[in-house]
Amino acid sequence: MHDLTLLGPALIAGLLVAATHVPLGIQVLNRGIVFIDLAVAQIAGLGVVFADWLGFEPQGAAVQVSALAAALAGALVLNWTEKLWPEVQEAVIGVAFVVAANAAMLLLAANPHGAEHLKDLLVGQILWVTPGRLAWVAVASAVIAATWFAFGAKMGRVGFYVLFACAVTVAVQLVGLYLVFATLIVPALATRALSRGRIGVGYAIAALSYGAGLAVSMASDLPAGPLIVCTMTGVGLGAYLAARPRAA
Question: For residue 156, which of 46, 112, 115, 119 sits 20 to 30 Å off, Cα-Cα?
Answer without folding.
Answer: 46
